[in-house]
Design brief:
This is Coiled-coil domain-containing protein 22. One of its GO terms (molecular function) is cullin family protein binding. Residues 124-158, 212-283 form a coiled coil. Among the domains are: 2-128, no CATH class; 207-249; 278-365. Helices cover 89% and strands 0% of the residues. It is built from 11 helices and no strands. It has helices spanning 2-8, 12-36, 39-43, 49-62, 68-83, 88-155, 162-205, 210-249, 256-315, 317-362, 367-389. The two termini are 117 Å apart.
Amino acid sequence: MCCLRQFLYPSEEDSYKLIRFLVERLSDLSEVGEKAGPKGVSDKREVKEDGFQSSLEDHKTRDEGPDLSHEKSRTKLDKVTLIGEVPEIAVNDVCSSSMEGFNKDRRINVFSGNHSTEKVQNQEQLLMEEVKAKTSELEHLEEELKLLKEAADMAFDVHHSVEFHLEKLNEQVDVRKHHLGELISQWEAVRKPLEEKMKSLQESVYANNPYAQEKLQKLKDYELEKESILSEIRKREEELSKLSTDLEKQPKLSSRRSYIERVKEITKNSRKQEADIEQILKDTRELQLESNSIQERLHRTYAVVDEMVFREAKKDAVGRQAYRLLTSIHESFEQIREKILATDRTRREVGEHEKKLAAMASRSLNVDKLQADLDAIRRENEYVEKCLRG
């Protein structure tokens, strides 16, 4: 609207620019006409000062501004008419082209103005959003700063310990929970009559409409299902809080990585022990084979020596004495072998018993607990005896 008003009622500066543009075009066309010759000039001599004066009068009727611009334009047109006469068609072309150029400039200015306005509005909207984001971030940082200050005051408080502040915070949390529970109970007390009233009103409204009544019934079913789901959620949340508190009370255990490392170490040690056991079994088998071969050799040697000495013992008394010594030596070595084996078995049994004693000594025995268990067993036995007698 503003641009249209500016076009219909141009200012002094706009009128001056238009007249100067027309003068420049007319001067160019006059030069072209002079070069073309007197033929075009003699054909059309009708366009004089009157045409331009009529156009200026039209501008004057549209514009109520000062007369100075019109006087200047009149003098400039007088000068133009003195220079030479121009054909009527050329004048019309100049006027139409000048008006088209002026209108085009106006449209470009309007479009650029609208575009710049939209751009400014977008920038303003972006700046407002950025200001809101910065404001919310600043509020969040202020809250964090407040909490950090309170935590620092608690940490550097020399009059009270950290446990005192923790107990105080826990008390505040309990008070807030209690207050929240009271608010929930109050809201439930207010909500239930309102819901009943709303249901009665809905039933009265939808009583004559079966389709609406069916929808109302479905809505009631959905509300019941929602209530059951919400109650289940509350129950689960209570269980979660209880389990969380129990978990916090539990003693701190080692991390999973430590258990994995221990399992790996045990597996490595077991593999090493298996390799050692296989090596020991292999050595034992070799020793057993060697022992068996030595025993067989000894038996064969003893049998040969016994036969030779027995033959000599039949001949004289010295042989009989040698045979008696041989048999006594054989019996003595047999007894020694049996004693060595018995000693080895005894040592193994002693080692096993020592391990059992060490395991029993390492156990922590609670005498009071054992006494309580023993008393409970005795009472139970007495009760069983009374039942059997009765």
